[in-house]
Amino acid sequence: MTNAVVLDDVRKSYPDVTAVDGLSLTVPEGQTLALLGANGAGKSTAIGMLLGVIAPDSGRALLYGRDPAQAVQAGMVGAMQQEGGTPGRVTVKELLTFIRATYPDPMPFADLAAIAQVTGLERKRVESLSGGQRQRVRFAMALAGDPGLLVLDEPTAALDVRARREFWAAMRRLNERGKTILFATHYLEEADRHADRIVVLAEGRIAAEGTGADIRARAELAAASPLEDAFLALTSKGEDR
Ligand SMILES: Nc1ncnc2c1ncn2[C@@H]1O[C@H](COP(=O)(O)OP(=O)(O)OP(=O)(O)O)[C@@H](O)[C@H]1O
Predict the structure, then answer these.
(1) How many Å apart are CA 193 and CA 167, to the nearest integer?
(2) Which of 119, 177, 186, 214 could form a cystine bridge with 113, CB 3.0-4.6 A?
(3) In a 3-state reduction of DSSP, which class is residue 233?
(4) Which segments of the protein form a coiled coil according to its record (predicted)?
(5) What are the backbone angles phi and psi of residue 3, rounded to the nearest 5°?
(6) Predicted ipTM beyond 0.85
(7) Which of 58, 94, 38, 63 is nearest to 232 (CA)?
(8) Which residue's C-alpha comes closest to atom 8 of ligand 1?
(9) For the chain, where are the E strands, in sequence order?
(10) Ligand 1, from 11, 21, 43, 237: best to mutate by most atoms within 8 Å of Cβ?
(11) 10 Å Cβ neighbour count for 130?
């Protein structure tokens, strides 16, 4: 089976901090992987490296066996980064039509609008949308090329309860169509319910990985305990551990 993502001992330091400290991670095609970690744990930096946006100091990232920038350019990867902007004055329809046209085999517009929940917003200018609506447009931008791999940094952060539920239903359908999904979240129950595998980062390294049950066991907690308890135990610093 092909691996959609390989991170091989990647490291990235900034003057004040080592953001990612020797991270190795392989995501096989078709898997849904959740990346958890406290603020500053290195999730966005790891995602930036796997998308080819941040150059690692050492180690390497491969997407489908290729250089990440090449895989992104070929439309194999759709990404939604945390601070991704959206152009303001165009309508949703104009924006998504333009983005679809840049890919060799884009997702049909109606499918895209339905999956990303932007149906009914097509004629609105992007600048007039609410934060959650804009987030759905950003999700549609990530999906436009019908990529095999979706990389989503906190995809549900601004979504209301209904939009969040519909987002996960859409992700399930995409996963059933064989897509590989890697998402970072602070909502632990989302990871527990929707990911095949969870990776917990702490200080740029993997603190635990596996299913929700594996993570609880690693923290020596009962199977019925909240994942949040395991998360806090595994990511607490120094004397707490
Ligand atoms: N461009 C940068 N310059 C300097 N330091 C940075 C830069 N980007 C990230 N860092 C630092 O690297 C560490 C990891 O940051 P990163 O954004 O990867 O964490 P995160 O897990 O995504 O956090 P959050 O949950 O808050 O989004 C933090 O200490 C952060 O301050």
Answers:
(1) 13
(2) 119
(3) helix
(4) none
(5) -95, 130
(6) yes
(7) 38
(8) 45
(9) 3-14, 17-28, 32-37, 58-63, 77-80, 149-153, 180-184, 197-202, 205-210
(10) 43
(11) 11
Each residue's pLDDT, cut to its tens digit, for the chain (241 residues) gives: 689 999 999 999 999 999 999 999 999 999 999 999 999 999 999 999 999 999 999 999 999 999 999 998 888 999 987 766 777 789 999 999 999 999 888 999 999 999 999 999 999 999 999 888 988 999 999 999 999 999 998 988 888 888 899 889 999 989 999 999 999 998 888 999 999 999 999 999 999 999 988 888 888 887 888 888 888 888 886 444 3
Structure tokens at 148: 């095999």
Q: What is the pTM of this model?
A: 0.91
Q: How many CB atoms lie within 10 A of CB 163?
A: 15
Beta bridge partners of 181: 32, 150
**Lookup result for tokens 């996963």:** 175
First to last CA, the chain: 38
Q: Which domains does the chain have, with CATH numbers?
A: 1-76+178-241 (3.40.50.300)
Ligand 1 pocket residues where CB is under 6 Å: 14, 17, 19, 37, 39-45
CB 49 within 8 A of CB 7: yes
Those residues with Cβ within 8 angstroms of residue 221's Cβ, 6 or more apart along the chain or in another chain:
229, 230, 233
Which residues are paired to 82 by β-bridges?
none
Give the ranges where 62-184 is alpha helix by DSSP (H): 68-73, 92-101, 109-115, 131-143, 161-176
Which residue bears the tokens 């990404």? 79
Task: Kindly calculate the radius of gyration of the chain based on its CA atoms and give it in whole angstroms.
Answer: 18
Q: Could you give the CA distance from residue 83 to residue 205 in angstroms, rounded to a whole number?
A: 23
